[in-house]
Each structure stands twice: as C-alpha cells, then as structure tokens.
Amino acid sequence: AAMSRKRLQLLVESLTRSAKHFNEGEVECLIKLFDALVAKCSSQFAGVGFNRIVFRDTLHSAFGMTDEVVLDRVFSTFDRDNNGCITVVEWVEGLAVLLRGTLDEKIKHCFMVYDLNGDGYISREEMFQMLKNSLLKQPADEDPDEGIKDLVEIDYDHDGKLSFTDFEKAVREENLLLEAFGPCLPDIK
Amino acid sequence: KTSSSFEEVSESSSENEEDEQPVRRQEGTTDLSPEYWGIQKLSKYVKGGDPTATVIALCSMRDFNMAQESCQLAVKDTGCLEVLINLLDTEEIKCQTGSLKILKEISQNMLIRHAIADLGGLEIMVKILDSPDKDLKSLAAETIANVARFKRARKTVRQHEGIRRLVALLECVSVGTPYQAEDTEIARCGALALWSCSKSTKNKKAIHKAGGIPLLARWLKCSDANILIPVVGTLQECASEPSYRLAIRTEGMIKNLVKNLSSEHEELQMLCASAIFKCAEDEETRDLVRQHGGLQPLSVLLDNSENKQLLAAVTGAIWKCAISIENVSKFRSYNTIETLVGLLTDQPEEVLINVVGALGECCQEPINRSTIRECGGIPPIVKLLTATDQALLVNVNKAVGACATECENMTIIDSLDGVRLLWSLLKNPNPDVQASAAWALCPCIENAKDSGEMVRSFVGGLELIVNLLKSKNKEVLTSVCAAIANIAKDEENLAVMTDHGVVPLLSKLANTNDNKLRRHLAEAISHCCMWGSNRVAFGETKAVAPLVRYLKSKDPSIHRATAQALYQLSEEPNNCITMHENGVVKLLLAMVGSTDDVLQEAAAGCIANIRRLALATEKAKYG
C-alpha cells in the first residue's frame, strides 16, 4: 500500500535523524528499495516488512555475503523485536551501521553477530562453530579441531569466553580483529 | 678554494657510502629459539587458512616482540616470510594489512630487508601504493622506507615506478577537512619512503621529475614535527644536487628551514642545519639565511655540544654562511667566534673540519684574527696541522694562513713550530693539501721574524718546494709560485733555489693561459731575477716572449706583476731584444699612464732600458 506523500516525508525525516549516517535523499532511496523487497515477499506480513529469506538474498546479491550462519546472525541484529520480520525502521537503521557505522557501532554489531546464543558472551563453542570452516584440511594425522583450538588459544587465552568488554578492548588495540570470526560487514569493493 | 670537503661530507650520505652488507651469523648452534616454534605454528595457519583464520593468525604473530632479532630471524627461517609476501599479492585487504604490519617491523633487520627484496617484495609493495585503502598505503610506504636502506632496493623501487607513486602520496588535501589527519599520515609515510630512496642520485632526479619539490615545499610550511622531519630529511639529502638547491632558494624554503632551527626536536634542528649547510654553497642562499634571521639561531645551537650529529650540521652551516663577509659581521655580534674556538678540542673530526673552516672564513674580517688569538685559539689550530684527515688539513692550512697575516699571531705560530709543520705538509700526497699549505706559507714567510733563516732551517725544504714546480695540478703550481716569490726576497735562499734549478722550472710554466697562475708566476720570476745570472737564464730558457703575451690579457692584476718581471728581465740586453721583437713597447706604453704607481714605474723602467740599449747599439754602429 503506497504511503501518502506527507507520511512519507515524515518517515524520511525521522529515519534520517535516527539512523544518523544517511541524508534524506539516501533514506528515500532505501525506503523505495524496502517497498520493492516487501512486494517480493508476497504479503506474508501484510506489507509491514520482509522476511529472513528475502533479507539473505538481498545481502548476498548486494554485498556478496555468503556465509549462512553469519547471514542468519546479521538478520537477528537487524530484527530487533525478534518477530522474524524486518520493518522499514529496522531496515534503514541496520544498514546505517553496516555501511557507515562508526567503529563503536561496528564493534557492537559484530559482537552481536558472533554471540550466537545472545547471552552476552562469545563462548569457545561458539568460536569453534564459526571458525570450523576457516581452516583447510590439515594433513591426515592432525585433528582439525586441534587447529581451531590452537587459533582460539593463541588469541584469547583467559576464561574461555569473551565478554563485550574483552572484545571491544581487543578490537581497539588491533582493528583487524573487528571481523575476527568471519566477515559480517560489507567489503569495500 | 676549498669546496672539496663539502663534496665529501655531502656524498657521505649518498651513493658513495659503504653499502650495507648482510652477514649471517655463524649457524653453529642447532638451538632454535622458543619464538621459532611459536611463529612456525602460526605460519601454518597463515598458509593454510581462509582469510578469517589468516587474519587471526597474523594478529597473534604480532604478540611476539617483532623488534627482537630472534623473532625476526624466526619469521625468515620458518619460511613465513615468503608467505607474508605472497599475502601481499592477494586482493584481501585485511590480509595485506596484517602482513604489512609484521613486515614493517621486521624489515628493520638488515638480513630481512635483503630477503624481502630478493623475494620480489618491493615490486608488490609499490603496486599496493595504488590501493584506495589509506591504512594499506601508509603501511606499504613505511615498509618501503625500511627496505630501501640499501642500493639495490632503491633501484628496484625506481625501476617499478615507485618514486612517482610515492610522490603522489604527498598530494595533500585541503586543511580543515575531517580527513586532514589521515592524509597527513599518508604524506608522512610517503615522505619517509622518499627520504630512504633519495640516497640514490638517480632517485633524487626521479623525485624532481615526478614533481616532488613543490609538494615538499608545501609540507615544509606546516608545523607538525612528525611530517617535517622526513620532509626536511628528504630535502637535505637531495640538496647535494644543484637543481634542488636552486628550487629550495626560489620556492621560498629557506624561510621555513630557518624557522625550524628553533624547533624543540633536535633531529629536526639537525636536518634543517644540514640543509642550510649544503645550500649555502650559493651566495644568494647565504644572503637569504641572513635576511630571514637564520644566523643567530645557528649560533645559539652551538651550545648543544652533546649531540655530535647536530653539532656537525650546525658548524657546517656556519662555515658555509661565513663565506659571505656580511654574515661574518653578524656572527661576530653573536660572539660566535669565541664559541667556535671553544670547540677546537675534544670534538670528532666531522665537527672539527667545519669549526676550523668557519674560523678561517671569519678571518676575512681582520679584527677576528685578533679575537681568535685573544681567546687562545691559535695553539689548538696549529696543533691540528698534525692531523691526518685531508679535508681537515685543507681547512687548517687556510685558517693558519689567514691568522698569519697578523704579526702577533705569527709569533705564536712560529713558537709552536707551525711553519715547519706547514712546510712538511708540502709532502702530503693530496694536491689540495699541498696547495693550501703553500698558500698559507706566503703570509708566514712575509710576517715571520728572521724568516729567511727560518726557511733555511728546514732541511731539504727549499729543494722540496722547488720540486713542486713539477706538479701537474694548477692550484699547486699557482700557490708554489706565490710562495717562491716570497722566499726569493731573501738572497741566500734565492741562491739555494737557483742551485736546485728553479729558473728552468719556472720558465717551463710560462706558456699557460691561466690568469691566476700567470700572475703569481710573473711575481716569482721578477723576484728570482735578483740573483747571479738568472736574468740571462730566464732569457735562455725562453720565458721572455710568453711574458710579453700576458700584457695582452684584460686582467689588470696580471699587468702589474708582468711589468715588474719584464722590468727586471730588461736589465739584460738579450732580453730587451727578445721583448722588442715581440712588440712589448706598444703594450707597455699603454700602461705608462696607469693609475697604479707600481705598474707605471715598472712599465716606464722597462721601456727606458730598451731605449737605452737601442741608443747604445746605434751609437756603436754609427760611431
């Protein structure tokens, strides 16, 4: 259902304020894109938003993000009220962080992605889970899990789990660790 | 003229420097360091993981202390170095960044940077300079700066269009945008790399060609020492090239260089002084330094005598600036001469060369010759006559000679055996040393008490100096003629020199076109005429005709000396005939009306002798 011009304008203004990193012209484009995606969704949510599948496809084609686990998690960070549906607000504000977030915002985003069960900590099991495909097959006499253990051991060697503070500190010291457990931000290219 | 030591000093930081040779220490022990195993484990993941795992492994590797040699060598010995370089060739920005962060650290090690160059790492880093990622560009430039510390590496950078790309990093964004700090960092890294690369002469030219000079000039105007240091470093390194010196002068850079002499950073002070040292070869620059108030800060910097590199640069700048006499007056008002005298002892050679050079130049103002004596400067200078460094000796000779023009100074010099030391420097194999010693001897002989006897007391001394007339070096010949002219004023010594064959040796030199030599040769001849049959001998050895030709020169200083020589020679009838045949009368007539009294008299005297002979001949013929 098309919005009236006035309502659209109000929405643009409010989103520009809350998302912080886009100007009004850009917000309007994103809203148009949103409408197109909702239409694809065959009115599952009665025009309010679109679902996980559409989201994953979009991110895949727009940013080349392929990892299923990661894409699922990113969906969860966007879907703040956890109802399986991305609304226009969630859409624009989520993209603001993804595309133009400050280092602080990105750190929060990545931590949320990696915290698979949402309990506020990245546990060793969660790290294993995310890294298990990162290592190529080691020579036959080595247990692949050994490799992961080594890497994880090397990097974070205290209480077996990573709090947000731990993660933030590590990333501030070494920016490269922002996406330590897998790419969850769009590539520059 | 003693610009030779400047060349040596400036070239010492350019191509002629001993290029580093990596020497592997004895591989005797099989004990591999604990770092070796840790790094080897990590390099497995770097090699065998996807980008995510690689980045984690690379970050972990930096937990090792990469400034430590054992870690650096471990990276190489485990084969990890190749892996790091291969990573540079991928398009994965995070991997490239992680790899460069390590390479930047370990390339401080001489063996490693040679290995990086051998593995083709430089070419890849040059390509990375084109990347849009700012961090990556900066890291690549900084790493290149470390690797390019040896000749072959610098050549490689140039051959792969690296210089052009590095200069492009200097293109600064307008001040006041949020990107200013980032872009300053990129420019800083670019300047660091250019500084390293500029040690090769071809690279200096390449930087110029790529438009580097105006960019460097722009950065010179900012006040951040972090970027000023590599910028000035590059400029002073390149200032050995005349094209750079010209640009530094015309693009208004002297003002900024002078300003930064007062920086708090000693390294920046040193680099600015070094740039001024090299540029002050040119007179206009010396004037600019004075006009921008540069002489005082230079003088003040002399007080920091702990930092020898700084002291060498500052004394060098003062030396060259003092070539202009207006600057000497300024230095005097800052009591620079006293401070310099204090630096004549307990200083490394590179400082002494410049200090003595400066004092020598300051003697252009006569009052400073007394000042040097009054603060006890003469003894240490004379002591330096026993030094071995040739550049130092040249400057010492010049300073001694300058001081010796004052009689009170001469007394001290003589009492310290200074003249004998100068004389023995005539045996030094370096012609610049010989010439400067001979020049210095002139005022010594003129002003010493009982100089004739003093000269005679140097065993073999007269033979030595006469034999120097066989030298092939113009400056040596000129200075020796000047000295001989002085020595010959003592009759006994002239007799000894005649025995050693001074007359034919002088005559042999007569056919020169060099005006300075001509002048001093004529002086020597005119004084050597005053003994025995030397006038006849000069005639027989064909000195007369060439001398007549000297009168045709436009240089007035030659005329006086030549006229005097001809006058002396004309006391001998055969010489009159020769002169007359060579058309001397017309030339001399023109000089009879000269305002120079000495010239006038000599010209007139010579013509009179010729006339007298002509008359006598006529009388004899016609009774």
From TrEMBL, chain A:
UniProt-listed SUPFAM superfamilies: EF-hand (SSF47473)
PROSITE patterns xref list: EF_HAND_1, EF_HAND_2
Keyword Hydrolase assigned: no
One Pfam family in the UniProt entry: EF-hand_7
InterPro entries xrefs: EF-hand-dom_pair, EF_Hand_1_Ca_BS, EF_hand_dom, Recoverin
Keywords from the UniProt entry: Calcium, Metal-binding, Repeat
Gene3D superfamilies: EF-hand (1.10.238.10)
GO molecular function, one term: calcium ion binding
Residue span, EF-hand domain: 66-101, 102-137
KW Cell cycle (keyword) present: no
Protein name: EFCB1 protein
Originating organism: Smithornis capensis
Taxonomy of the source species: Eukaryota, Metazoa, Chordata, Craniata, Vertebrata
Name of the coding gene: Efcab1
Automatic annotation (TrEMBL), chain B:
Domain of life where this protein originates: Eukaryota
UniProt biased composition (Acidic residues): 8-20
Pfam families associated with the record: Arm, HEAT_2
Residue ranges, annotated region (Disordered): 1-30
SUPFAM superfamilies cross-referenced by the UniProt entry: ARM repeat (SSF48371)
ARM repeat placement: 120-162, 460-502
Name of the protein this chain belongs to: ARMC4 protein
Organism of this sequence: Smithornis capensis
